[in-house]
Amino acid sequence: MKRLRSGVDYFESCDKTRLVIFPTFGKHSYSIPSPYGEALRVLDCLSDRRRGDGGDDADLQGLLGNVELSDFVNYLDDEGLLIDESCEMGLSDEARTRFCRQMAYFEQSSAFPDNVETLQLNLGKRSVAVVGCGGVGAPVAELLSATGVGRILLIDDDVVELGNLGRQIAYSEQDIGVPKVSALAKRIGLINPQTSVTVMQERIDVENYARLLLESDFVVVGADTPMPELLYWLDDLVDKRGIAYICMSNCPPVFRVGPVFAQPGGMRYKAYHERLETKWRDAARYECYSNTAQASKVTTVWVCYAAAAISVGNIVQYLLTGNCALLGQAYLFDMESLSGWWGTG
Fold first, then answer.
1. What range(s) does the THIF-type NAD/FAD binding fold domain occupy (predicted)?
2. What is the model's pTM?
3. CATH of 126-344, one of 3.40.50.720, 3.90.550.10, 3.20.20.450, 3.90.1150.150
4. Which of 11, 199, 256, 291 minimizes the number of CB atoms within 10 Å of its CB?
5. Residue 52: which pLDDT band, with cuts at 50, 70 and 90?
6. What is the DSSP letter of 51?
7. Would you say 189 and 24 are in contact if contact means Cβ atoms under 8 Å apart?
8. Within 10 A of 322 (CB to CB), how many other CB atoms are there?
9. Contact at 8 Å (CB) between 258 and 317?
10. pLDDT band per the 50, 70, 90 thresholds, residue 140
């Protein structure tokens, strides 16, 4: 049985006039004009993505009774976008080589179960949304791709500017004027072609956050606006959909990583901030400042990548085990004194 290769994504265009098939491993994209409803159902079946009533083998076989749809699947196969399902039952030799040192870490760490190949395979089935592709969001996305996370959703409405290049080294001078989500998707494709990337060039707001983030297992908050409203919206998704998220903030020379908010009924950002006001007034003042536009404009590349590295280690652990050091608590680090401390609500 054939299925869609890892690293092949597809989505409807914003104006709903065409269906775009986007391989992240170097091939050009493909475009299918409207009406494309049946082709979309075929892709859903081939990728095990469920939409409405679609998605099983019997449904696929019924669709392939249509000659045009059968030819469509043959075309995808000829273009190298499909793979035998049996080939993805376990790790490929290429994946074992690519992730050998990471799997060695899994094997030695007491934080992870014993079957390291299963862990790596499971990581390839996880989906992470990165909201904001700037100083922290971009390196987080790069590192997640390098670890083998299967699907990354990039959300940002900004374009690359010269002033970004001093701290956002995922981008280059050739990317100036290009949407950040597009440039970062290209960068991820170079790091790990098996990571499927979806791009959304729009600003997240109260009207669209649930729609954009609904299919993600985990959300990384790398945006500096709208704060703290975005975190309150994500609290709602944690309770209603079981989605987990991590937030970070910056108040030079200190940065905060975490908490990870997860598990329905657990601590949420609003409660975390209210407890800070009661128990640690200095920390609360830091938190209020870090949520301002002024704070977001004061940072360095080494702060961004330090925060990203700590975040990704915890994200990977949470995705694979449901637990991590930052679950319900934050870590604050002073880059000048090299001192750090835990902050909990």
1. 112-247
2. 0.71
3. 3.40.50.720
4. 11
5. very low
6. -
7. yes
8. 11
9. no
10. very high
